[in-house]
Amino acid sequence: MNLEGVEKTMLLTLFAKAKHSQQKNHKFYDSKAIEVISKVDYDFSIAEKDKFMQLGTIARTIVLDEMVGSYIKAHPDCTIVNIASGMDTRFNRLDNGKINWYNVDLENSAHYRLKFIEDTDRVTTLAYSAMDPGWASEIKIRKDVLFIIEGLTMYLNQKDVENIMKVIDENFSECTVFMEIMPPISVENAKEESIEDTNSKFIWGVEKGCELTKLNSHFKWIRDVNLFDGVNVYKPHYRIITWLPMLRKRMDYIAVLEK
């Protein structure tokens, strides 16, 4: 398979989306995820048992599908750049027939993706590190640009996150960023068996998205969207506890930034 460490996590989240899509009460349906998982040679036995990883992936997908879908509705001809895309299939779920989509990931991950998910005339995969400014020069359409940074920052250090923001800042005069952040308390204490099985570790996070503006003052913080909002859609009975501040501060959130 030739995937190492964090690279393997892209298969775990794809598995979670495929499994959810085949449930009777699914909140999104991802036929591409089902198709790809049926072809991938990987032992998903640990991922199958990791309910916390599955719940987090489903909640994040519900939240980001809603957020990205709303952005596309408001900007039907937009360009979307998915940084550290892995095996993400959001384009297949949300395509309106007009958007242009770029997937950016490390060379090994990008090549692995292309074995199972081919590019199209409006989808381009770019083999770069998120911190490499080279990918920015390959984005051809720069009107109404949305950056999605999902499932990445918790595996990086603060300098890496700062560098990603710098690349975006120096190459795009106007844009919106949806960046998933893990709170520090969860970086230190969260345990996901399937993630640990890949020898990956959570490293970095901030308590509130407004703290990201300290890394680059050219960005304006708009709001944070807690992933418990997705949990509440998937498991409505969880609402009796997901409002508790002590729990919400432990859950990942999507920081919305604008420039």
Q: Helical proportion?
A: 25-40%
Q: Which residues sit in consecutive blocks of at least 5 with pLDDT less than 50?
A: none
> Would you tell me the overall average pLDDT?
93
Instruction: Name the CATH architecture.
Output: 3-Layer(aba) Sandwich
Quickly name the level 1 CATH class: Alpha Beta
**What strand line-up does the widest sheet have?**
3-2-1-4-5-7-6
Structural class by secondary-structure content = alpha/beta
Protein name: O-Methyltransferase involved in polyketide biosynthesis
Keywords: Methyltransferase, Transferase
GO molecular function, one term: methyltransferase activity
Pfam families: LCM
Structure description:
- The protein is of the alpha/beta class.
- The protein has one domain: Rossmann fold, CATH 3.40.50.150.
- The protein is built from 12 helices and 7 strands.
- The protein has helices at residues 9-21, 31-37, 45-49, 51-74, 90-94, 107-116, 158-171, 184-189, 193-196, 228-234, 239-242, 245-248; strands spanning 79-83, 100-105, 123-127, 145-149, 176-181, 220-226, 253-258.
- The protein has a 7-stranded mixed sheet.
- Helix 5 links the parallel strand 1 (79-83) and strand 2.
- Helix 1 crosses helix 2 (31-37), helix 1 (9-21) packs across helix 4 (51-74) and helix 4 crosses helix 10 (228-234).
- The model has no long low-confidence stretch (mean pLDDT 93).
Structural topology:
Layout: H1 9-21, H2 31-37, H3 45-49, H4 51-74, E1 79-83, H5 90-94, E2 100-105, H6 107-116, E3 123-127, E4 145-149, H7 158-171, E5 176-181, H8 184-189, H9 193-196, E6 220-226, H10 228-234, H11 239-242, H12 245-248, E7 253-258
Parallel strand pairs: 1-2, 1-4, 2-3, 4-5
Antiparallel strand pairs: 5-7, 6-7
Helix pairs in contact: 1-2, 1-4, 4-10
